[in-house]
Amino acid sequence: MNIEVTMPQLGETVAEGTITRWLRQVGDVITDQEPLLEISTDKVDTEVPAPGSGRLREIIIDVDATVAVGTVLAIIDSEPAAGAGRPAHRRHTHSPLIRRLAAEAGLGLDSLTGSGSGGRLTREDVALAARQAVVPAEASVRPAASSAPAVPAASSTPVLPAASSAPAVPSAPTASIAAGSPVAGPAVPMTSLRTVIADRMMQSLHTTAQLTTVVEVDVTRVVALRSAARGPLHDRLGVRLTLTAFFAKAALEGLRAMPVLNSSIGADGRSVVRHTAQHLGIAVDTDRGLMVPVLRDAGDLSLLGLSRRIEDVANRTRAGAITPDDLAGGTFTITNTGSRGALFDTPILVPGQVGILGIGAVVERPAVARQPDGQRVIAIRSMAYLALTYDHRLVDGADAARYLVSVKNRLEAGQFEPELS
User: Fold this and answer.
1) pLDDT digit string, tens, across residues 99-141
2) Out of 92, 94, 275, 392, which one is annotated catalytic?
3) What's the 3-state SS for 280-332?
4) Catalytic choice (45, 279, 396, 399)
5) How far apart are CA 302 and CA 178, in angstroms?
6) Cα separation of 51 and 78, whole Å?
7) What is the distance between the alpha carbons of residues 260 and 280, in angstroms, rounded to a whole number?
8) Model-level pTM greater than 0.85?
9) Is 396 an active-site residue?
10) What is the DSSP letter of 61?
């Protein structure tokens, strides 16, 4: 009996996926729910388990092909003896990734030779062709230089004019170091997730007017409150209270006061969409790269609720158990680069959003503090930087400063006790 392996429905917002790797080969005996292949969508990479046990009889869709949900990817023969080792019928298409890489390298797909199954083009094929397109051009320059009849004269002759008269070198891919450069090492393809991140970041920088404003915050009271409460809370409720939850709570309250930062600019570039709910993206560092799961309706959560939800999505993201729907629909994002020791950075906006708040490391250092009697003293305080990047098409610097100061005041007041009861 044949068992069809199909492209799964990974979420309501996902209609297609790209095959990135087959984990088993034709002829292999596999078991039910064993990871069979890896796929990538525009939001997440994930494994697809085998829907039944048997022998993998045929792989229909090859690596790098992008297909719609429901497409049959492979056939498993539940009777291992039947069909084992039969040559598979392959169907090849050029994925958007291959088409994009070839276009960036100035290469025509018809001129390339594929090394994949049945002549399928791979990323390595495109990268190799790009390097070969550069090296001959450079080689054509070097003989001209070395054939100069008089070395002394050549050494006294400016090099730039000669180089400028050389044949034009074809444009290399978007890598910062051109292929064929003396400092270039072996080209290693980006992972699918890295490619998605790269594309999203470039899209954001090319389509928005980004500006970053920074404030310094004294979080000494928050640190003390968290230190006193986290042990009892964990024992009583199992909640892992983190400083990130305090920052998230203050950030969400700030959005209520400054709803422009919880908005989006319409596709026409001339309209504004004011989001009634606050869906908070949380940047999570994983072994595979940065991912941003979304806490839907985060503005309705208490500090404890935020702590639970942040821990949940962070654990699921790092475990590779996040779904595309978990990554969709954010209206504002926070990123905690301070968790790795950075004082602050200038975050890049998530496409479609107009604000992202970067949280720097909380560090102890001498600072001016005001005592209850009004006297100012120099004391050891817990300090942090908050960096807000915003789309200057919609948000002015004064708006950004008002938002940051509202978050700063909330954190410095440190009055979160009611949230912990």
Assistant:
1) 666 766 667 777 777 766 556 676 667 767 766 665 444 444 4
2) 392
3) EEECEEECCEEECCEECCHHHCCHHHHHHHHHHHHHHHHCCCCCHHHHCCCCE
4) 396
5) 51
6) 11
7) 15
8) no
9) yes
10) B
